[in-house]
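(Structure overview)
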Amino acid sequence: MDLSFTPEEQAFRAEVQRFLTDQVPAPLTAKVREGKHLGKVDLQAWHALLNAQGWLASHWPEQYGGPGWNTVQKFIFEHECALAYAPRTIPFGVNMLGPVLIKYGNDAQKQHWLPRILSGADWWCQGYSEPGAGSDLASVKTSAVRSGDHYIVNGQKTWTTLGQHANMIFCLVRTDRDVKPQEGISFLLIDMTTPGVDVRPIITLDGEHEVNEVFFTDVKVPAGNLVGQENKGWTCAKYLLTYERTNIAGVGFSDAALARLKVIAARTLKNGQPLARDPLFAARLARVEIDLENMKTTNMRVITAVAGGGAPGAESSMLKIRGTEIRQELTALTRRAMGPYALPFIEEALQEGYDQASVGPQEAAFAAAQYFNNRKLSIFGGSNEIQKNIISKMILGL
């Protein structure tokens, strides 16, 4: 595969760089660069900027509001956004639900929900995991019983990222208990303002309210909010997860983290010499860079397959495993490079206005927080152990 950019692609790259320089507010990129917490207003501002530019749904077909980019353009855009410390686009509506609706939704659902995803009128969250069904999603117990023109939903979801901001949630629900687990699941869209929906916060180690648990008690959901056929939601779920797992690879985020780590290693001294010259540290740095370059090639192959009308199979699981391992290694090396400055975790250091200079390098403020937070990467979206099982079945037939 030729990974060099054509003159047209270089011109597109320059266009993206100009947009990021001219349109994205400097205070917003500073918060990302310094590892500060981003609030709902910050994330909505980035969403609105991309939508106004026509670049929000980069992998949607043009007929639904996508920009019509090819595979390389998508890669360039995501890569440049990461290097410029632009915020991450909230993926649940644009990157996860959108493709499912485009493939499996009916015309009425597409006409209603897709424009609202783009405009930001709806903030979506994901209702997959449950206390007893994380990596084993076929074990979901949240029930949806048909009653006339509605479903009555009861159950619980957990680890619902940014659910405190959302007004809509797409859920896997159990609609038939008398068949094989995967055959009794449906894909349902639920308005979180409906009576009976209760969102409760889960505070993570870094003091952040990022995830939640969501309870459903006799929640009435219009039958028209069923995506695809009843009891066929497992097909939608698997299709969505291929997008989630591919995105979890986070090539652009790893590139940005690697560039920052090299700067840290060059200016951090160990025994009077830059840390980058330390044989053990240099060896780990070289290994993670090699792994990242290899993953870039695989990532582009997978995206090319999707652009051609297919859906990634075992490759998305491969990307999920290697991508999360690489991101975890980069945060581990960053924390190691900070030495004793990364030992304490000061929650206030992640808030806007904190004077980090009084306690050490700016990178130390988020080194520990990112290290611990990124432990989850190899678990959510289907644990890496589960991904290895998927690869074994799909490729080796085991």
In short: The chain has a mean pLDDT of 88. The first strand starts at residue 124 and ends at 127. The CA atoms of residues 123 and 249 lie 23 Å apart.
